[in-house]
Design goal:
Blueprint: E1 16-18, E2 21-23, E3 30-32, H1 33-42, E4 59-61, E5 65-66, E6 72-73, E7 78-79, E8 83-89, E9 92-98, E10 102-106, E11 111-113
Antiparallel strand pairs: 1-2, 2-3, 4-7, 4-11, 5-6, 8-9, 9-10
Length: 114
């Protein structure tokens, strides 16, 4: 088993290094450790205050959100047991159940960690 990371493009584990580059012989992709670190940081979902969010966190809505028609989620509404999405849905990266509204997607910048 290789001590080097798998290729982020084709996911093969036969990578090797050449100086500060990681190289995949299967697809020819080249990348640096800094690129891997930046990609990992981009995957972290943060609330409006910059706190990282994880599955099961409790959050509070920090501004009124229009849902549909005349329905609105009021500022200060508490939401428990959120789920962070691996793949955002229309820029919404949280899934949760809001009392009175049911299951829905929210943007993380509209909530703060409780």
């Amino acid at each position: 088993m290789s001590e080097f990371p798998s290729c982020p493009q084709c996911h093969e584990n036969m990578t090797y290094t050449d100086g500060n580059l990681f190289i995949c012989p299967m697809c020819g992709h080249e990348w640096t450790q800094e690129e891997m670190d930046a990609a990992a940081e981009a995957l972290i979902v943060r609330d409006s205050n910059g706190n990282p969010l994880v599955d099961g966190d409790n959050v509070i809505v920090n501004q009124e959100i229009k849902v549909s028609g005349s329905k609105k989620i009021k500022q200060g509404t508490k939401i428990s047991n959120i789920r962070v999405l691996d793949e955002p849905v229309n820029d919404h990266n949280l899934e949760c159940t809001v009392d009175g509204f049911g299951r829905m997607y929210l943007k993380s910048e509209l909530v703060k960690k409780n």
